[in-house]
Design brief:
There is one protein chain. The chain is built from 10 helices and 2 strands, in the order αααααββααααα. The mean pLDDT is about 80. The termini are far apart. A two-stranded antiparallel sheet has the order 1-2. It is mainly α. The chain has 2 domains: about 150 residues, no CATH class; about 70 residues, no CATH class.
Amino acid sequence: MTSFGYIPRKTIVDEMSGASKIFLTLAMSISAMITFDTRFLLLVIAVSISLFIMAKISFKEIKAILVFIFVFLLINNIAIFLFAPEQGVLIYGTRNELLRISERYTITVQQLYYQMNVTLKYFSIVPIALVFFLTTDPAEFAWSLNTLGVSYKIAYAVSLALRYIPEVQRNYRDISQAQQARGVDISKKAPIKARLKGVLTILFPLVFSSLDRIEQISNAMEMRGFGREKKRTWYSGRSFISYDYIVAVIAILCIGLSVYTIVLNNGRFYNPFI
């Protein structure tokens, strides 16, 4: 089982400052959310995938999260069609029917195009979000948030949460192996009821050990006077390098292009059917 979290690597992306990466992630995410221009979304996807390849992230690290995202996208698209089968027709103002399922449900080119754009939004945001999460040290992430104006108390809380994810995974694996050594079968060969019962025997110790760990950390921070001062210094802070300035320019261009597409299309939606 591969831990899902930050792993130090020697890549260009890892050398970048966490502040520039979070700025790029926010800029690309906001830009992709505010527009439905297919051309712009494809451009953002190309940039996201390029950074993903440059980061040299292995498929094993993100397999579980990708499966979850694909299942979510499938459910999301089915729900959109069930509750708003004519949304694409209403948005684009034309109707090209492909298949009539019933009086209410009809598959149209416009609906497919609309739902494709919704899916493209996720594909444009997920890669860059994974790149940021997997290539940024949690301590540097806290510094990055504080650099962007977030209170250092909130930034440090987020940093602790991210840092604790791999530890929770390790604890789950250790407790699972201990329970299996005692004869608890949670493999695929066991019945679903037995597997669920076995998972519960793992979750309860995991929750209590996590709560105990939280109490230890909070006591240690309180004893050291955390939160007493309005500002603090950061050991993980780093200076910007040339790549960081390039990333900042790309982020600003993304926001500018997104706004330009809205002006060009007289709204959020690019309509190829007129």
